[in-house]
């Protein structure tokens, strides 16, 4: 009987993992289980080009299932896991695996008190969500409230302004994305949104919701009121791990993995993408998650390869994180781990006359950088960042031991 690898999650990470297994010559069964009805699609387009109508739904799809040699089961969420039996549970079936790749991603965080489920109160996480938002916009030309000042909220606000919609953006901090981009770039981004016509309600709390068939009424804590066509709730996300409760895997803001992507305590389970929390030894030994497109691609390929090789024969996964956002026509590019920095410095662009890059520094070394509409300079300084933080040859012995024994807190 041939071996079977099950991939839980049919999004980008699941797709790239399946492709990598076949590239490496795995000739057993590959079964991909996806909760959504579609194969992987270009998720960043949901808050940008798909929302504005610049691309169609078909344009966002990343592959034809027939192009990848796997059994694709869409609309089939995994409900539980029994790792001691090597079985994943579906609604009405048990499926044995010889190897498992967890790639279930994240799900939107729900806002307490918000009438989630109302057709005019939406999130933006799936194709269906963006289509629901387009439907709500078509039914009322009035202003749109966006709750959340993270990347999704800011991108949706930008896209809505491109569509000539009136936008009110609610956020908790005094400036947009300052916790991620730093206070200087946060202030610059706040001014950009204001200049492009976004009404900012920073530090404003919603006291009462008044949903109606054709609009949503919002009452602020200070007594003011606002009527909007619809509300986009973008208050973050949480790892999609509810199906793993009771499986006795280490769960702590995601599935905890060792440096090789193997789930701590297991040699037959790896995790990849938004759901995985692992130590990137290029920067530090503390496990963390990366909710970004490129990491889903790179980590899923590494996880698939390391699943086949086994924990002892696998290299550590040590990328230089890179991601970007586009808002009001400006591309914001981030590389490395700016959150580790204790100071910032301006880095000269290698191309005269172009913008400098903001470098993030710790103990005299570059740990991250952010560029604004400066792709060539970002490439140049990302290479320097990688040079200053070379990938370690292998995990330190104490981390290898911890990985193989599963001796971590909460396990």
UniProtKB/TrEMBL annotation:
Keyword entries, A-Z: FAD, Flavoprotein, Oxidoreductase
Cofactor(s) needed by this chain: FAD
GO CC, alphabetical: cytoplasm
Domain annotation Reductase C-terminal: ranges: 323-389
Domain FAD/NAD(P)-binding: 4-298
Keyword Glycosyltransferase on entry: no
Entries under InterPro entries matching the protein: FAD-oxidoreductase/Apoptosis, FAD/NAD-bd_sf, FAD/NAD-binding_dom, FAD/NAD-linked_Rdtase_dimer_sf, Reductase_C
Residue ranges of the region described as Disordered: 389-411
Molecular function GO terms recorded: oxidoreductase activity, acting on NAD(P)H
Designated name of the protein: Ferredoxin reductase
Organism: Amycolatopsis mediterranei (strain S699) (Nocardia mediterranei)
């Amino acid at each position: 009987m041939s071996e079977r690898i099950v991939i839980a999650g049919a999004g980008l990470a699941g797709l790239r993992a399946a492709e990598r297994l076949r590239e490496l010559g795995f000739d057993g069964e590959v079964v991909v289980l996806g909760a959504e009805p579609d194969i992987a699609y270009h998720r960043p387009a949901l808050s940008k080009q798909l929302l504005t109508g610049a691309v169609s739904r078909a344009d966002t799809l990343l592959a034809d299932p027939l192009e990848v040699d796997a059994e694709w089961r869409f609309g089939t969420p995994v409900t539980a896991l029994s790792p001691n039996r090597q079985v994943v549970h579906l609604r009405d079936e048990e499926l044995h695996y010889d190897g498992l790749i967890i790639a279930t991603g994240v799900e939107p965080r729900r806002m307490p008190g918000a009438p989630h489920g109302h057709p005019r109160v939406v999130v933006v996480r799936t194709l269906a969500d963006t289509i629901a938002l387009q439907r709500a916009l078509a039914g009322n030309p009035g202003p749109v409230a966006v709750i959340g000042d993270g990347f999704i909220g800011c991108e949706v606000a930008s896209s809505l302004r491109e569509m000539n919609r009136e936008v009110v953006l609610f956020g908790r901090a005094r400036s947009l994305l300052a916790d991620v981009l730093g206070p200087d770039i946060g202030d610059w981004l706040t001014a950009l949104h204001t200049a492009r016509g976004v009404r900012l309600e920073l530090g404003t709390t919603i006291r009462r919701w008044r949903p109606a068939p054709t609009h949503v009424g919002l009452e602020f804590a200070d007594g003011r009121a606002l009527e909007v066509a619809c509300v986009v709730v973008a208050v973050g996300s949480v790892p999609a791990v509810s199906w793993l409760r009771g499986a006795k895997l280490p769960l702590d803001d995601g599935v905890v993995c060792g440096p090789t992507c193997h789930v701590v305590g297991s040699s037959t389970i790896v995790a990849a993408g938004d759901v995985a929390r692992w130590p990137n030894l290029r920067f530090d030994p503390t496990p963390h998650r990366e909710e970004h497109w490129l990491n889903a691609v790179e980590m899923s390929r590494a996880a698939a390869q390391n699943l086949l090789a086994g924990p002892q024969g696998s290299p550590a996964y040590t990328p230089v994180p890179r991601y970007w956002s586009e808002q009001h026509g400006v591309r914001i590019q981030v590389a490395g781990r700016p959150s580790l920095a204790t100071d910032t410095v301006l880095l000269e662009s290698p191309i005269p006359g172009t913008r400098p890059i903001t470098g993030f520094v710790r103990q005299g070394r570059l740990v991250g950088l952010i560029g604004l509409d400066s792709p060539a300079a970002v490439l140049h300084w990302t290479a320097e960042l990688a040079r200053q933080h070379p990938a370690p040859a292998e995990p330190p012995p104490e981390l290898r031991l911890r990985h193989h024994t599963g001796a971590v807190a909460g396990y």
